[in-house]
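Late entry, written up from scratch paper. The run itself happened at the end of the previous shift, but nothing got recorded in the book at the time, so transcribing now.
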Amino acid sequence: MQTPSDRHAYPSHWEADVVLRDGGTARIRPITAEDADRLVSFYEQVSDESKYYRFFAPYPRLSAKDVHRFTHHDQVDRVGLAATVGGEFIATVRFDRIDSRGMSASAPADEAEVAFLVQDAHQGRGVASTLLEHIAAVARERGIRRFAAEVLPANTKMIKVFTDAGYQQKRSFEDGVVRLEFDLEPTDRSLAVQRAREQRAEARSVQRLLTPKSVAVIGVGRTPGGVGRSVLRNLREAGFTGRLYAVNSAFEQGTEVDGVPAYRSVRDIEETVELAVVTVPAERVPQAVDECGERGVLGLVVISAGYAESGPEGRERQRELVRQARSYGTRILGPNAFGVINTSPDVRLNASLAPHPPERGRIGLFTQSGAIGIALLSGLHRRGAGLSTFVSAGNRADVSGNDVLQYWYEDPDTDVALMYLESIGNPRKFTRLARRAATAKPLVVVQGARHSGIAPTGHAVQATRLPHATVSALLRQAGVIRVDTVTEMVDAGLLLAGQPLPSGPRVAILGNSESLGLLTYDACVADGLRPAPPRDLTTGATPADFRAALAEALSDESCDTVIVTAIPWVGEDGITASPETLAGELHAAATGCPAKPVAVVHVELGGLAEALAAATRTRPDAPAPAPAPGSEGYAHRSRPAERPPTPTAATEGEPAARPGEAAAPATGAGAAREAPPEAAPEATPSPAHPHRIPAYPAAERAVRALAQAVKYAQWRREAKEPGKVHEYEDIDESGTARRIDELLAAQDDPRGATLAQADARELLGRYGIDVRDALPAPDPDAAVTAARALGYPVALKTTAPHLRHRADLGGVRLDLADEEQLRRAYAELTRAFGKPAELRPVVQAMAPRGVDTVVRAVIDPAAGAVLSFGLAGAASELLGDTGHRLVPVTERDAGALVRSIRTAPLLFGWRGSAPVDTPALEELLQRVSRLVDDHPEVVTVSLEPVVVAQRGLSVLGASVRLAPPPARDDLGPRSLPGY
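Output as recorded:
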């Protein structure tokens, strides 16, 4: 539909789908000459007041000259963008480059005048704010650094759009007009504003799917059975609080299906439909989407299969489905989705294929796989755990885990987030969102298909060159609790949802089995915890003995958490004690010290399993005895609250507090939805509700979950003070930028190239990174000349790719004290490995002795800039002992990176060796981080080896690769993934 512009090819990369403030979507694209009719129609729907605000005078209609001007742009000095829904304009924005006098101009003028017009029906949806982000990015790309706008004082909405954007501004008032000028360089505040808007919009789009007031199921069969009929039944049986409609083109008007009004089409439903669940065959889905779009349905859950998971034809069908839905401003969950569940008593939504919705709880669950979703729902139900919300995204063609994470971040009903991911479509964004979410509530992630090297069928993902271990390390750095199996995910989730965060790694162990206690002790040591010797209560211990021992352990200031181990016991009269009795005693003891977490390890023998299974299947609307530690569920424990639990707690799937037991202030893992991420407290009160003691059938599982909680709590404490990105006065940022432009301009390959050694040394030197000179030695005489210039002693080494950095192969000769030794070494190298032309020998001055390390930075297309560190040689190459951090790194990050590798003790005086200068190493890491962060054209830096001595360090080898930066990055305007 678009045509080339007057001066520039149509910039298709400016096109973007965006989520607006209310959760709906719009498409932003350049305005072209073919949009004349759309522009006229759009203008006719704008009120006279809005036209007055735009043109400062009554302007009832556009002249032919106006239409031509507003639809013909050179895409350089004059640019216009439109926001569209259903192919029609809902808003426009344009800029015209001007000079210092305010007259039309061309480059190198770097200022432009900007103006907006938003259709009245769409004002208040955040359209203008979103357009400003995109037009500012376009302007920066075209060399414009500053916008000017003239606004009438009464146009307070537009003034607010500019003032709230976060850019540095100048404001003046002249001739009855407010003139605003602002730089377009992103600032910390503008980025914070942009991301806050992104969070609200994407969270709202998920909220539309989870809290509808009306649901239509499209594809309900006339006879029992089938997917559509099953979804309708599940909605009814869950007690959905809104209106339900059944849709099938074969229905007769005015009929009902299972008591639900039936219609031939969504168009026939007079009331507003907020959510449609589509279950018709794939070939009939486009018709259903069109009907929903025309009817104004807010969200779609597409359960229908036959899309990208079925092959190339299905993949194209999936792309068209997304394009079609977005054209109506609607978001899609799916296709091939399992559905959504919201257990809130205000909604009670089960728009899924799960016949039995989970009980109400504080855990949010997201899966991409329907099969895994079924297994997790079943497993959580068996263990007595409740959910707040459940989302299974299927092929996640549109709504993804990132969107759900945005929703959970502020959701007061979710304390812990569990995510099963088979792929991460945007790792850079996911890491950013996860870091923010983790400051408020735990996020537990298990990633499937991590070793296959390919994305699951049906998933569109960005290609990444990073190995899975690196991605996992980056997620952990962001506060994500990474586990390997869904069992570990559930184990960790139960502990985090039911217990406060541990204040440290010290563990007390008590129980009635010495052997089980010792197994638990060993597991604690293996997972990095600090257990005290187990306390054996003997097999004759009664539930009252357990209560007394647990109360004593919890009151001991030398422990941070307690693990109770239990096996079945028999009283003196030969009667087996009731497991419910033990659960009650443990609950009573734990209530007395609510600040420390408690977990139970049990061995299921005899009738214990049956008793516990019955206890964990208690109905949510009736109080019941607490499960004992033999269960894989919980022993009840009141989590401290600011006020006593109200009767509604029991109706939400959580039994009320035991009579006579007071509740104290909350200290649990779920916390701080209101505070900004950087100020999120370690533990803040959540709504009053009792919590439970988790029980595990194996010591290793309980300890692993506890160890994850300890590490997460430590991360959260450290996240309060993340450190600062150091500013070095000797860094030449502007000079480096100019030099990079010169080097790129001199390259023939548009994909970029690796710099020559001299250019790499110069570029690194501008950031205070000194690389020792290495002089070429094509023959023995040249080697001697180089040594004289550098001064003895010297090193002679080959730079051939197959021998580079391989001292173990003999390609390096060190401590050559004079000419005789140098010539002898030269002859030995050429005799052993080949001719000088093949070896490319160089001579380098000897560096002080130390530990050889490697520092690398790479720009990954999916994950962003990553800084890596390890020891040189086999440690990092063979064993994979390498640490990673996302750029930019703070001083705290740099210190943690140095200490993150297993061989770090070699840097700190292992076995009596002298410690090396780690502060100098940390400074080097920060300088490399600054280089790649300041200049996205620097796509690879490799410093090898970096010899860290007792005082100072020496960079002996360096490689730098430059490439043109991407048109858009994570600092660009918000947009949905393209299709």
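The longest strand covers residues 88-98.
(Scratch paper discarded after transcription.)
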